[in-house]
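Complex 115.
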Amino acid sequence: MNEISCRQGFVPSATWLARFTDPETGAVENCGTIQGITDQVDVGSIQNIGIVPNHRSRGLGRCLLNQSLLGFAKVGIKFVTLEVTSHNTGALRLYEKMGFRIIRTVYKSIDLAYG
Ligand SMILES: CC(C)(COP(=O)(O)OP(=O)(O)OC[C@H]1O[C@@H](n2cnc3c(N)ncnc32)[C@H](O)[C@@H]1OP(=O)(O)O)[C@@H](O)C(=O)NCCC(=O)NCCS
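Predicted structure with coenzyme A bound:
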């Protein structure tokens, strides 16, 4: 959060930290994050969406994405991109359910050496 907030193009309204308060002990823990930046005029980029394992599948990821998209819209950004590895089918499903569509697939080369 500190690192990204120093970057040029940081979008505070698209950046959120989810915190959980244990109702029994009152202990507070950070449980999820999403960060937004903009590289070009009118194009947003979501960075580092993540929910800690024991808080996943409770709707937090969807909620953070919604908040981030609203935060981008608040500063006039309606076109938002993010990158995900193709193996991350769970995350990909979530993004597609939220209305994201695949615009580019990148195949990376592998450098090999022998001897
Ligand atoms: C991807 C991630 C952010 C999703 O957050 P989450 O809080 O678990 O997701 P939600 O509970 O909001 O789920 C929203 C929807 O996505 C679906 N979904 C989420 N994770 C899924 C998974 N692993 N497999 C299948 N579906 C999944 C849910 O079924 C849900 O659909 P529904 O609302 O129709 O029931 C979270 O799993 C995570 O932090 N993963 C590790 C980090 C990561 O991969 N980040 C993405 C990098 S681009």
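The first helix runs from residue 2 to 5.
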